[in-house]
Design brief:
The complex is a heterodimer of chains A (about 260) and B (about 270).
Chain A (H helix, E strand, L loop, with lengths): L1 E10 L2 E11 L4 E5 L6 H9 L6 E6 L2 E2 L5 H8 L2 E4 L11 H12 L4 H14 L15 H12 L6 E5 L7 H18 L2 E6 L2 H7 L2 E6 L2 E6 L1 H5 L4 H8 L12 H9 L4
Parallel strand pairs in A: 3-8, 3-9, 6-7, 7-8
Antiparallel strand pairs in A: 1-2, 1-4, 4-5, 9-10
Helix pairs in contact in A: 3-4, 3-5, 4-5
Chain B lengths: L8 H37 L1 H4 L2 H11 L4 H23 L8 H39 L2 H7 L4 H40 L3 H11 L2 H27 L4 H34 L2
Classes of the chains: A alpha/beta (about 260), B mainly alpha (about 270).
Chain lengths: ~260, ~270
């Protein structure tokens, strides 16, 4: 379904993605994990075509999206759904209008039919009856659920999730996880989830990939990841403060930074 | 001691960098303008796909209708000031009757479009960049892109068209109330009747004066809406970025409006006579 080949991206001379290779099968839930700033969100932005890589390719159903122009990407993106970290609802529209947005923009469906689809999608995320509220009247968890309803409004084949559990209480986070699992099992959607929350990751994943310093260090089932012997994956799974990712920099380095004489 | 301080060359490299940055911005701005104009032209061929009536009317209401009070008040008082000032100057020659013509021509050619554009830069230009900037930092624009909705068509084009339609309308309102302000002073100081004042104004005015003003206001609409959108779209760095973007948008639009006004006045006074 999705194949990432030797993807490289640098920002201001810093390599954020360093030859990433990854394959994602149809219908599976792939969780991409890694510490803050390891490049997982950047990887996700490449998959949606929001960023262009310095080199490498992203194939989605055999089509290399890094070679497509903006108009061709628009057609490809109609088959995607994406849940943003904050939900990213348009604040000037009501909940119902937000969910309807992809439909009103891309289809010529009758408003009555669109209305029924909105109700169905909101029902699916457990928010029926909320269509006339404004996003500012919702809590963070509700916004994410509306964002999810909007992401699946066009019945996409692939759904991307950017930190679905971030900033939510454990119960709401579990509800979102349940929704993600339901969507892939009931509707057969391929899900790509970027997260650093271990509980949720082990709950929903069919397979996991661990990113470290812009590289994929391990790919495997949740069990394989749990039993991993790779030092960084071990540190990440157990949540140890010190390990391959050091707690503090070296003393000399610290002095240099203080004096500002490093170069 | 600091490694990045290289003595005297610091200032030169700072100037070179600033020029590079400005050129970069100018290039991106015109690129955005070109894309929006191309969208507009595609819209003329396939209107249903590009123009969404509700969005354009919403923008026209927010930008135009809601700006009427502020345009009306500023124009009325500016008209009164202009009348008082010109009456003071013309009284030396005993030519107070010319006040009507001066206010009429002055407002339709120059002050009407200019004061409207200045007021709208502050009210609408700032609102555009604050809104788009906030949408940029809260991932709303990215979310539009991932839904396969072109943000330029969905967000920029309605604002561009809305202001393009409404700014000339506001300018006409400003012209009218500026002339009315002039009349109020003439009525108070010289007991002039509205009919006589109107006749004096019409004698002095030609159609070209009004058209000149409207052509100016069209170009100001492009400047204000596009600078607002550009500064909003390039916002980065949270709330602080939104604030900076908004400030830049207002400052840049004001500068460009005044410079372009002078350019157009020269064009219409000396080139296209």
């Amino acid at each position: 379904m999705i194949k990432i080949v030797d993807l490289v991206k640098s920002f201001d001379g810093r390599r954020v993605l360093d030859k990433v290779n990854l394959k994602i099968k149809q219908g599976e839930t792939m969780v991409i994990m890694g510490g803050s700033g390891c490049g997982k969100s950047t990887l996700l932005r490449h998959l949606i075509g929001l960023e262009t890589p310095d080199s490498g390719h992203v194939f989605i159903k055999g089509i290399d999206i890094t070679k497509k122009n903006e108009n061709e990407l628009i057609e490809i993106r109609k088959k995607y759904g994406m849940l943003f970290q904050s939900g990213a609802l348009l604040n000037s529209l009501t909940v119902g209008e937000n969910v309807a947005l992809p439909l009103t923009e891309h289809t010529t469906l009758d408003p009555k039919i669109i209305n029924i689809i909105i109700k169905m999608k909101l029902e699916l995320v457990g928010l029926s009856g909320f269509e006339n509220l404004m996003p500012s009247q919702l809590s963070g968890g509700m916004k994410k659920r509306v964002g999810l309803a909007r992401a699946i409004a066009m019945d996409p084949e692939i759904v991307f999730y950017d930190e679905p559990g971030a900033g939510l209480d454990p119960i709401t986070a579990a509800v979102i996880d349940k929704l993600i699992m339901d969507l892939s099992s009931k509707l057969g959607m391929t899900s790509i989830v970027v997260t650093h929350e271990m509980n949720s990751a082990f709950r929903i994943a069919d397979r996991m990939a661990v990113l470290y310093n812009g590289k994929v260090v391990q790919i495997g089932t949740p069990d394989q990841i749990k039993k991993s012997e790779h030092p960084y994956v071990k540190q990440f799974v157990s949540g140890a403060p010190d390990g391959p990712e050091p707690l503090k920099r070296e003393k000399g380095d610290y002095l240099k930074r203080l004096m500002g004489t490093y170069e | 001691m600091l490694s990045n301080n290289k003595g005297g060359s610091g200032l030169i490299s700072f100037i070179i960098n600033s020029i590079k940055m400005s050129l970069c911005h100018i290039y991106s701005f015109f690129y955005l303008l070109a894309v929006v104009i191309r969208l507009f032209l595609t819209g003329l061929i396939k209107p249903g796909k590009v123009f969404k009536r509700k969005q354009i009317f919403d923008q026209m209401y927010h930008m135009g209708i809601q700006s009427i009070p502020i345009v009306l008040i500023t124009s009325l008082f500016l008209g009164m000031t202009l009348a008082m000032l010109s009456m003071y100057a013309l009284s030396d020659f005993g030519a107070e009757l010319w006040v009507a013509g001066l206010v009429g021509v002055g407002f339709t050619r120059e002050l009407g479009p200019l004061i409207t554009a200045i007021v709208i830069s502050g009210r609408v230009g700032a609102a555009i960049s604050a809104e788009l900037g906030t949408m940029q930092v809260s991932e709303e624009i990215d979310s539009l892109t991932t839904m396969g909705i072109n943000p330029l068509r969905y967000l920029v084009l309605p604002r561009f068209l809305g202001l393009l339609i409404m700014l000339p309308c506001l300018t006409v309102i400003s012209d009218y109330f500026g002339i009315l302000g002039g009349y109020l002073i003439c009525a108070m100081k010289m007991d002039m009747s509205w009919a006589y004042y109107k006749e004096l104004t019409i004698i002095a005015l030609s159609l070209k004066d009004v058209i000149t003003g409207l052509v100016k206001s069209l170009s100001f609409a492009v400047v204000i809406s596009m600078i607002g959108c550009y500064q909003g779209l390039i916002v980065s760095g949270g709330a602080e970025g939104v604030g900076k973007g908004t400030t830049k948008s207002v400052v840049n639009s004001l500068i460009f409006v005044i410079v372009m006004d002078s350019f157009f006045t020269a064009l219409f006074s000396y080139v296209i006579v």
